């Protein structure tokens, strides 16, 4: 009997963690969609693609959740999810999502390409880290998903953001 009680206790302790991870993944997908909707790209970038390309640098745990975005449209274009391990292939991306640590050399290269090809970089970290490369940084704070905006990086990539989006950010870096 004691063994069953112990198993029940352990299972109940594991469930909220798993549910929380799934909830954060779903919430991250919602943020990616909404942040993209509230950002505007130059006409040249918008007109060159048949799809709205949301790119993910390498495979990550969100891949299944992100697939649900394929049924959505952003700025009148059907969402396409692209996975890549090579930054040389990101020029067609509207959004580049990073869900892992990237070394500074790669960050500099990604930033340069984002400025050149009008790419919104969204990076998810476990906690807030001020950096110069990301356009938007997602992070967990007080068990909630929050975001900051590096408006300098956004402007440098020739993107525009809704004032509603900027008002919701924890911090806007200029």
Could you describe the 3D structure shown?
A hairpin with a 2-residue loop joins strand 7 and strand 8 (144-150). The chain is an alpha/beta fold and 174 residues long. The strands form 2 sheets. An 8-stranded mixed β-sheet has the order 3-4-2-5-6-7-8-10, sandwiched between helices. Strands 1-9 form a two-stranded antiparallel sheet. The model is unreliable at 1-18 (pLDDT under 50). The longest helix has 36 residues, at 2-37. The chain has 6 helices and 10 strands, in the order αβαβαβββαβββαβαβ. It has one domain (20-173): Rossmann fold (3-Layer(aba) Sandwich). The N and C termini lie far apart (61 Å). It is globular, with a radius of gyration of 18 Å. Helices cover 42% and strands 26% of the residues.
Secondary-structure element order, N to C: HEHEHEEEHEEEHEHE
End-to-end Cα distance: 61 Å
DSSP summary, beta strand count: 10
CATH uppermost class: Alpha Beta
Provide the domain count.
1
CATH topology: Rossmann fold
Q: Tell me the radius of gyration.
A: 18 Å
Proportion of residues in extended strands:
25-35%
Give the low-confidence spans. Answer: 1-18
Structural class by SSE content = alpha/beta
Shape: globular
> Largest sheet, order of strands side by side?
3-4-2-5-6-7-8-10
Residue-averaged pLDDT: 81
Mind summarizing the main beta sheet?
Answer: 8 strands, mixed
**Proportion in helices:** 40-55%
Number of helices: 6
Q: What is the CATH architecture descriptor?
A: 3-Layer(aba) Sandwich
């Amino acid at each position: 009997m004691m063994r069953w009680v112990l198993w029940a206790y352990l299972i109940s302790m594991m469930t909220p963690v798993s549910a929380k991870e799934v909830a954060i993944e779903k919430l991250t997908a919602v943020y990616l969609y909404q942040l993209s909707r509230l950002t505007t790209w130059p006409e040249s970038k918008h007109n060159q693609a048949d799809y709205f390309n949301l790119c993910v640098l390498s495979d990550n745990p969100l891949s299944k959740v992100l697939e649900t975005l394929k049924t959505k449209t952003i700025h009148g274009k059907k969402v396409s999810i692209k996975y890549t391990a090579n930054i040389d292939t990101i020029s067609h991306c509207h959004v580049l999502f990073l869900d892992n640590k990237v070394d500074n050399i790669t960050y500099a290269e990604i930033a340069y390409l984002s400025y050149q090809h009008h790419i919104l970089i969204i990076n998810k970290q476990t906690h807030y880290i001020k950096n110069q490369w990301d356009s938007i940084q997602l992070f967990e704070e007080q068990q909630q998903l929050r975001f900051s905006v590096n408006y300098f990086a956004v402007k440098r990539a020739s993107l525009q953001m809704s004032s509603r989006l900027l008002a919701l950010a924890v911090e806007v870096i200029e």
